[in-house]
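Sharing a chain and its predicted structure for anyone who wants a worked example. Both blocks are below, sequence first, tokens second.
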Amino acid sequence: MFGYKNLKSENLKPLLAVIKVLHFSSIFVLALVPISIIPGIYLGFSATSILSLAVYAVFGVILAGLLASLVAFEESYRQRTVHLGATHRDQT
């Protein structure tokens, strides 16, 4: 699962890389939490402490989505500015 594969940016490439890593790791933790409940209980961890990791993973997915919308907004604004600059030059 690769999230945000169609999202591109000229100015915010490092942030886009962080978004993709954050999204992938959050989805990985969300998939790992149900699998690790039973072994965690046998190792002495409480089920609530293991399930609390799901809260952090959901927060990571939400944060990645918010940052991705920021990158998409910036890229569309950049493209619009480039287009307006090109049409302005053509008119002069």
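Comments welcome. Residues 47-91 form the longest helix (45 residues).
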